[in-house]
Design a protein that fits this description.
- The structure is a homotetramer.
- Chain A has one domain: TIM Barrel (Alpha-Beta Barrel).
- Chain A is of the alpha/beta class.
- The model of chain A has no long low-confidence stretch (mean pLDDT about 95).
- Helix content of chain A is about 45%, strand content about 15%.
- In chain A, the strands form three sheets. In chain A, strands 1, 2, 3, 8 and 9 form a five-stranded parallel sheet that branches.
- Chain A is globular, with a radius of gyration of 19 Å.
- Chains in contact: A-B, A-D, B-C, C-D.
Amino acid sequence: MAHDEYTWPAGVQSAACFTLDLDAHSPHLWIHRGGMPQLLSHLEQRRFGPRVGVGRILDLLDRFAIKGTFFVPGFVAEEFPEILPTLVERGHEIGLHGYFHELANDLSDEGFTHALDHSIALFEAQTGIRPKGFRSPAWEMTPHMLAEVKRLGMWDSSLMGYDHPYTVDGVTEIPPQWTLDDAVYFKFLGGGVDLAPPSAPGPILDGWLDEWEGLHRFGSLFMLTVHDWISGRAQRIVMLEKLLTRITAEKSVWWATVSEIAAHHEATQKDRYVIDPSVPQGVEGHPAWRG
Amino acid sequence: MAHDEYTWPAGVQSAACFTLDLDAHSPHLWIHRGGMPQLLSHLEQRRFGPRVGVGRILDLLDRFAIKGTFFVPGFVAEEFPEILPTLVERGHEIGLHGYFHELANDLSDEGFTHALDHSIALFEAQTGIRPKGFRSPAWEMTPHMLAEVKRLGMWDSSLMGYDHPYTVDGVTEIPPQWTLDDAVYFKFLGGGVDLAPPSAPGPILDGWLDEWEGLHRFGSLFMLTVHDWISGRAQRIVMLEKLLTRITAEKSVWWATVSEIAAHHEATQKDRYVIDPSVPQGVEGHPAWRG
Amino acid sequence: MAHDEYTWPAGVQSAACFTLDLDAHSPHLWIHRGGMPQLLSHLEQRRFGPRVGVGRILDLLDRFAIKGTFFVPGFVAEEFPEILPTLVERGHEIGLHGYFHELANDLSDEGFTHALDHSIALFEAQTGIRPKGFRSPAWEMTPHMLAEVKRLGMWDSSLMGYDHPYTVDGVTEIPPQWTLDDAVYFKFLGGGVDLAPPSAPGPILDGWLDEWEGLHRFGSLFMLTVHDWISGRAQRIVMLEKLLTRITAEKSVWWATVSEIAAHHEATQKDRYVIDPSVPQGVEGHPAWRG
Amino acid sequence: MAHDEYTWPAGVQSAACFTLDLDAHSPHLWIHRGGMPQLLSHLEQRRFGPRVGVGRILDLLDRFAIKGTFFVPGFVAEEFPEILPTLVERGHEIGLHGYFHELANDLSDEGFTHALDHSIALFEAQTGIRPKGFRSPAWEMTPHMLAEVKRLGMWDSSLMGYDHPYTVDGVTEIPPQWTLDDAVYFKFLGGGVDLAPPSAPGPILDGWLDEWEGLHRFGSLFMLTVHDWISGRAQRIVMLEKLLTRITAEKSVWWATVSEIAAHHEATQKDRYVIDPSVPQGVEGHPAWRG
């Protein structure tokens, strides 16, 4: 129950990251890994991202002079080989996000490491850059995944145990959160796979601004996460423009890439907010338990 | 990551289509193709469309001098034989939409072609007009369906890979999108089949206007899709009136039928924005994959 | 595609009904007809209706001088024997609503008739009044139910094929609609049985006012349906007060009980808007069908 | 159908309780009692509560000089042994909430009593205080649970049969309600376990203020329930601040702990609003029933 007391560089009251998970149709391949259906609707909806959405978002970021961090599954970089070089050329950071957007729940430890190695090799081949950080698809993590991220000396941006940077077994964790994820509200594919209709953007924008107002007051980190094929739609470009207009009007906010935030954390507070990455024991055998 | 650069006729900044999928109770027959239950609720809710809703929407379009494109399943034209002639007489376009609103996921290739042929014959018998375009029920498409649309020399309005016209293996695609579909937000039938309660109309209207604002800025295509039995309800007529009042105030918007948009595309940009309609290979055998 | 042209008494532009389905915990008994769980949460939430909610709503109706129609399952009248006499004494209409809120989907024809007979006998025993109308639980109807309503010379208020009165095989139908039903938006019981969280009341109120505005313009019928344990909650009393304040400011609206509306229909337009109550044939054997 | 006539101390028009269910990751252990998955996402999201959320909420309550009642599962007090002493030191009440957030639906009578005894012992060991009240996880109750609460001479805060205090077989019941529970609207964990996306906070805040306005008018009890890991997020702190600013501006509201409300009830109206805690008989054998 510590007070909020994360510290930032001089003159900074709070920090903000613009992150984009450039999934395109990679989750479609993962979901249908048992066999691809001869159906085009989901594929085309998702390919709208690289074709149209990413360009719109890059232009928007340019207008606000914001450098973002783009997490790109290996498959997407392979299918659209201009993406990683373009992102680098326009000054943004690139990070890892699985190869086929593999979900931790259904993935073996070996499968994870195998995909990670292939992704890094592809990033290096396409850009000459070794990525500094990892974000897990759907933000699920296992102890094995954390150990692998640690082995590679990377930061992670997947867990949500604080709303400012913290440290998980030596790994710097730059936390996202569901409330600031466009997919939660706006992802809609049809065909019976959806949780709910798309939310109306106006009240969600107000909620994002409330979240920012609170985080700014608490001196914490506003980490927004959007997706190419979701926030590249016209309605959401309009929404993001309103959001960035409001937040960039506040001068004591530090807009930074995830690596910049991680470097600050490691230089100043790596030993504060340290947590144990192991899964706690279950109730079996606990004296208060009688099944 | 191309910039938005679709071109329109001189003086036009963006385009807009009003489309209506006149399903009535045809999906009910498809859903219950294994046997019709002795229940009246869903049937009556859907028959509200031809009885009341379509007339209200036609009157609304007349007030704004908009010509729409109405996609009508064969079964609906058969059950309500005055519909197609009335639509033609009032200056609107008619398009194909299956015979019983068959969903691609559960339909054989042969079943699709069989229904398509019967629909065309019925349209010609009732109006003397051979329809120029097709929209798939629930916006799902297979390579076979695309090949059939190509064979018949028609355009398609089902896939969502851009938000302006594009070309799929020679077929002109005029894309809809879920965000501008009334059913996503307002379809509600009761009896345990619904995804969510109906959305409140005010915030959704604001979202549609945001979508239009963005598409207009990007010089793209605003394609609205409504349904007879959903948007024929009084609340939604009020909503559509507000929407059309706002958009028609902007004079550089080209309101057109889908065929007019398709003809423009074919005359000017058929070879831009061309995509391959085949389904990509799955992960099996990919070097980054270890199942 | 007829124009809206339902006619009302002189000076009346549209009509409005306030209806309440006084379910209390009768659906709980129906749902658990195979055995009652030893759990109290749902029971207590539902009993809030007769204990608190109904009194608040009656006071509200008195303030606006509105006479409503209250549909009461037999079980509820039996458990709370003061309800029917109180409703009659305060000038409201009482109607039938099953005995245990039986759902048509799972009920035999014999079971329906049996429950109906018991309900009528109970209503007559408690009030000396034979109810004039019926509303089916969850608004599902079968041809058998309609035949029974016809045999008893009653009107029905269950089907939604128009938004003004119509006639189904000789039975006068006064249509409700889901969009004007509080349960769709606000019903929430916990324990894993819910479709969605409760909606926020403000945007739904705006939507109800939009629906009224449209129905008033079209000269149709605004039929609101609320529930004792849902709209008896303080938040919704506040909402209903705002709704009624707005609508009662319009003097050309005829607030009437369902029986008053039905009598008007039978006296003036029983032979317009007549529909066939049989279920259409399925697709089997249709020439356009190939399964 | 009694009028609202609950009585409060002189000068008080209505009462208000701020309650917090400090679940942290205790429900995660309950849900996975058959075996803990090697996954970190849900654990970390929930541990945000004790790490960050509770401190923010305590600071907020201090600013408004409100004393709350915090319901703490035994496991949470065990894992974070500073929580109960801190709450007591800062003047708040502590109450029971199961040991592992056990849900009544899946718990044996013996298991419930066993967990209750262990919780009380732990509370006494950590604070020297024997808690006066109980709230069931997910607000489900069985007759056995009520009998146990009665045996221990405690009040309960789980059932929702009124919106002011009442009496269940001698146990004082201080009712919560779903509409005033943050989890219903904002709980979101990812991984396929969610009912819906998080609601936008603005319209929900308006609904909570409507609920308060109505309850204040009816002279009833506004009982808010929040959770450490949900309402500790920045967006919701901003929301709670707006809520408390509005309600505390009204001077005739009595802000009290649940025990203070219960003591008032027992001293003045223990024999009004008395209900029977037994589950009613099912339909089997009822004369109106024919299965």
